[in-house]
Amino acid sequence: MLKVTEPEEIEDALFEYHLKLASTILSKIKYMSPRRIVEIGSGSGTFTIPLLEELNNYEVLYCVDSYTGPYNQDRKILESKVAGKKVEIVEKDAREIDKIISDIDLVIGHEILCDLNSKQAKEVMQACYNVLEEGGVFIHSEFSPFALNRSEEMLHIINKYSEEPISDTEWFSPTADELAGISYRIGFSSIDVNYRKVPIKFMKNAAIEMIKRWKTKTEFLEKYQDEINRSGIEYPMEQILYCIK
User: Fold this and answer.
1) Do the Cβ atoms of 114 and 172 come closer than 8 Å?
2) pTM surpassing 0.70?
3) Which residues are CB-contacts of 36 (< 8 A; sequence separation ≥ 6)?
4) Which fold has domain 2-244?
5) Rounded mean pLDDT, 202-224
6) Where are the domains of the chain?
7) CB 174 within 8 Å of CB 142
């Protein structure tokens, strides 16, 4: 278990977490060498940079994000991280990427569908399907909506206290069955779901810092700070969806 207790430890810990996750995700598609890649919901690059560490011989990575609302500063952060790399930042809603991008080998996303309701999630996945070449792969990693302990459950509770929710979400995260069903109805084949637990827990000052980063209402800490101090916040299982066009 990677335990993070101080704010200055957070960036290194998140990099290690997402590097392990990216390695796990890409190990499933060792048979292909994607050259044209889209990352949806790239944000400030928390997953993007570890992903780039694991990619070889790619031609271009399109980082797609609308950068609206509470996330409007994330583009500048990402730009500073990817300077000099084979990356193009596309400021666009993921539901509209098929209007400007095509002939993609791989579409990959991490923690984006949790911000959308079921109709929006389907629209995003349809656009991802449309931009892929035949035989192209869509991969999405999302936290499991099932908490295994109180530390994981705290993340679910924090989600309910979002200061600026993007949409009227119906879930903390969609279940793997829901995502697989949407994928099948869109037309994807060879649908598979893997689960991976990368143990990481935020404790004490690091937990408080993460709560602030997630733009959480002050009422949350007023109610739960003592419990956060005791149990911390733990990331749940990752559910990783793989589909082929």
Assistant:
1) yes
2) yes
3) 58, 59, 60, 62, 103, 104, 105, 106
4) Rossmann fold (3.40.50)
5) 94
6) 2-244
7) yes
